[in-house]
């Protein structure tokens, strides 16, 4: 079990580039209707590969001559595809601003490189399915790329161990982050992103300290009330999840569904991580692979150190020193 | 080392030295280079079967032998990947993999209790060969550090789970567990047969 922790920590240390937990290679393309069926495109958030290199494919009845997109009387309805999504641009948000009516937003990801632009009769069943698949995937992606969230969950598992209490702990974390995610997404609460990210890092430092305490046979707060700590910090992490949704500019009428699918995606990713960790703990016990003596303190120190490193970096961003 | 083991090592070395140019299979990089490194070997049957075969062999040799493979295997993957990237060797190593499958399959089928040191040497050699083969997936835009970390973590996770599962399946080795040992031996013969087929296909193409 200890060896497993040492490995996770080592992998995290080896991969510092992956630790920008809330930053993604997202591009935001705004298509503004200037006259009936004619749009002008503009990257409001340039993707890392550069806007000019994005392979954008419009519906067949549309004529695309960058930055103009002419779809005639039929308007911009149909499949819009980005053909070259990859590691340098994981997702793109297409915002369509019509002359009349609400702005509509569509997320294109590597998993779903094509979106169907909805007509005025939307949302239809097809659009609901598309929305579900998109945000489910986005939720899974967000948790799997959120090294800080995963390290926090790992710390909780490390303290609680594979027991019945782990179920309540993870459930409390889920309830906590779901509540604050919903509250933040609906605009009931608002926390600036940079201080929030620093707090998330600090929550992992806390868990690291608790692990060391536990190894010194001290019953820390997490060891005594893991559900309370998980639920409390879950609230903080949930606002962090919401910041991922906030940048996507979802239509308000679609927000509850998008939020629900996104949250389910986060849960699927989190559950997969928990199950994998438990399987590895079982494997290490079966193999008798443990670090000898006082070296079992190393994972706790390592988790705390990594999180402290993140915290300092994020604090510097809060203070705008970077 | 027994004569049989020496022959096995010589055979493995022959296959390790033989390499062909690879055509790397492209996988989606939806989750970035860490996950690309972790998933890439799992999309290749050669890696999947080899990793499992090695895990089953190490697990069937007992926990003490398996523990050393736990660290050596990902280390070998890293060493092979680094060497492959440095030397720009993008060999897919299909024959090496096929030969290794035959070797591992035979060791399992014959239920040979090989020495722990030999197991470590086989694990390190195979991991290095597969690590080098995976170097073909590293493109100019790939973050090498992340890809390497992903590959090593995937290797560690898979080998740990397979070894532990084998240990659990095999049990304490009492008379009542005989059918389980037979099952592992049968599995070994299938692995060897797969290796022969893969080798034949590679030579034929």
Topology:
The complex is a heterodimer of chains A (322) and B (205).
Chain A: H1 2-14, E1 26-35, E2 38-45, E3 56-57, E4 63-65, E5 68-70, E6 78-82, E7 91-97, E8 104-109, E9 114-117, H2 125-145, H3 147-160, H4 164-185, H5 193-215, H6 221-224, H7 226-246, H8 255-287, H9 298-318
Parallel strand pairs in A: 1-7
Antiparallel strand pairs in A: 1-2, 2-5, 3-6, 4-5, 6-9, 7-8
Helix pairs in contact in A: 1-9, 2-8, 3-4, 3-5, 3-8, 4-7, 4-8, 5-7, 5-9
Chain B: H1 3-17, H2 32-39, H3 45-60, H4 63-86, H5 94-109, H6 116-134, H7 144-170, H8 178-204
Helix pairs in contact in B: 1-5, 1-6, 2-7, 3-4, 3-5, 3-6, 3-7, 4-6, 4-7, 5-8
What does this structure look like?
The complex is a heterodimer of chains A (322) and B (205). Chain A contains 9 helices and 9 strands. In chain A, helix 1 packs parallel to helix 9. In chain A, a hairpin with a 2-residue loop joins strand 4 and strand 5. The longest helix of chain A is centred in the C-terminal third of the chain and has 33 residues. Chain A has 322 residues and is α+β, with helices and mostly antiparallel strands. The two termini of chain A are 38 Å apart. Chain B is mainly α. Chain B is built from 8 helices and no strands.
């Amino acid at each position: 079990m200890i060896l497993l922790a040492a490995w996770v920590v080592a992998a995290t240390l080896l991969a510092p580039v992956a630790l920008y937990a809330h930053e993604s290679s997202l591009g935001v393309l705004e298509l503004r209707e200037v006259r009936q069926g004619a749009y002008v495109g503009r990257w409001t958030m340039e993707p890392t590969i550069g806007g000019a290199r994005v392979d954008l494919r419009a519906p067949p009845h549309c004529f695309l001559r960058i930055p103009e997109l002419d779809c005639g009387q039929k308007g911009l309805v149909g499949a819009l595809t980005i053909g070259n999504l990859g590691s340098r641009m994981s997702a793109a948000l297409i915002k369509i601003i019509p002359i009349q009516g609400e702005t509509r937003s569509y997320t294109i990801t590597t998993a779903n490189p094509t979106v169907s632009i909805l007509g005025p009769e939307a949302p239809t069943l097809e659009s609901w399915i598309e929305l579900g698949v998109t945000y489910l995937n986005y939720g899974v992606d967000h948790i799997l790329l959120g090294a800080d969230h995963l390290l926090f969950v790992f710390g909780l598992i490390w303290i609680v161990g594979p027991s019945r209490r782990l179920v309540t702990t993870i459930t409390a974390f889920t309830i906590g982050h779901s509540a604050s995610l919903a509250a933040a997404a609906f605009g009931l609460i608002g926390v600036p992103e940079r201080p929030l990210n620093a707090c998330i890092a600090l929550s992992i430092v806390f868990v690291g300290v608790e692990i060391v305490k536990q190894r010194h046979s001290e019953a820390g707060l997490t060891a005594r009330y893991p559900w309370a700590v998980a639920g409390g910090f879950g609230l903080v992490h949930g606002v962090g999840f919401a910041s991922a949704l906030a940048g996507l500019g979802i239509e308000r009428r679609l927000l509850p569904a998008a939020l629900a699918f996104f949250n389910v995606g986060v849960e699927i990713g989190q559950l997969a991580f928990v199950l994998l960790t438990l399987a590895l703990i079982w494997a290490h016990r079966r193999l008798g692979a443990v670090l000898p003596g006082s070296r079992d303190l190393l994972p706790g120190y390592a988790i705390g150190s990594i999180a402290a490193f993140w915290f300092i970096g994020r604090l510097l961003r809060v203070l705008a020193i970077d | 080392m027994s004569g049989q083991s020496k022959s096995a090592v010589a055979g493995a070395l022959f296959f390790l030295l033989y390499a062909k140019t690879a055509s790397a299979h492209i996988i989606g990089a939806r989750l970035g280079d860490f996950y690309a490194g972790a998933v890439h070997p799992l999309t290749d049957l050669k890696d999947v079967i080899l990793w499992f075969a090695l895990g089953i062999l190490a697990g069937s040799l007992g926990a003490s032998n398996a523990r050393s493979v736990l660290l050596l295997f990902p280390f070998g993957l890293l060493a092979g990947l680094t060497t492959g990237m440095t030397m720009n060797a993008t060999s897919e190593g299909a024959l090496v993999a096929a030969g290794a499958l035959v070797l591992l399959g035979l060791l399992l089928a014959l239920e040979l209790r090989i020495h722990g040191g030999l197991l470590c040497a086989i694990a390190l050699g195979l991991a290095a060969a597969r690590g080098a083969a995976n170097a073909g997936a590293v493109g100019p835009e790939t973050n090498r550090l992340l890809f390497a970390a992903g590959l090593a973590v995937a290797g560690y996770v898979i080998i740990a789970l397979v070894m532990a599962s084998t240990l659990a399946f095999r049990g304490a080795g009492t008379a009542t567990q005989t059918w389980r040992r037979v099952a592992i031996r049968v599995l070994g013969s299938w692995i060897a047969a797969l290796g022969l087929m893969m080798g034949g296909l590679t030579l034929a193409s």
